[in-house]
Specification:
Shape: globular
Helix content: 25-40%
CATH architecture: 2-Layer Sandwich
Largest sheet: 4 strands, antiparallel
CATH class: Alpha Beta
Distance between the termini: 10 Å
Structural class: alpha+beta
Radius of gyration: 13 Å
CATH topology: Alpha-Beta Plaits
Protein name: ABM domain-containing protein
Number of helices: 3
Number of domains: 1
Domain ABM: 6-76
């Protein structure tokens, strides 16, 4: 059995009163990912429950994930996370999952 698509799931929890800020950052990443600027990004879904967020991402292959990391919005998100005032704890990322 051969699998081509690669799935990545990220779970994030914002600090109190930072949920809308995190939502805006994640939405900017999604908008960039789903344009022709990232042809290997096949799906990018966001879900929110209060301050908890889940990102479901599907890519053509591992190279597409690596290209996604060059998305300007991803770099901004990482910089904002590094400041320490956006998230409760670290994001939990399940990477390299194979779609079945």
């Amino acid at each position: 059995m051969s699998y081509n698509k690669v799935v990545q799931v990220a779970t994030l929890k914002s600090k109190p009163a930072q949920g809308d800020r995190l939502a805006a950052l994640l939405s900017a990443i999604r908008e960039h990912a789903l344009t022709n600027l990232e042809p290997g990004a096949l799906e990018y879904r966001l879900a929110r429950d209060g301050d908890s967020f889940v990102c479901w991402e599907v890519y053509k292959d591992q190279a597409a994930i690596e290209a996604h990391l060059e998305n300007p919005g991803v770099k901004v998100l990482f910089a904002e996370i590094a400041k320490g005032d956006l998230l409760e704890g670290n994001p939990v990322i399940q990477a390299g999952l194979q779609e079945i």
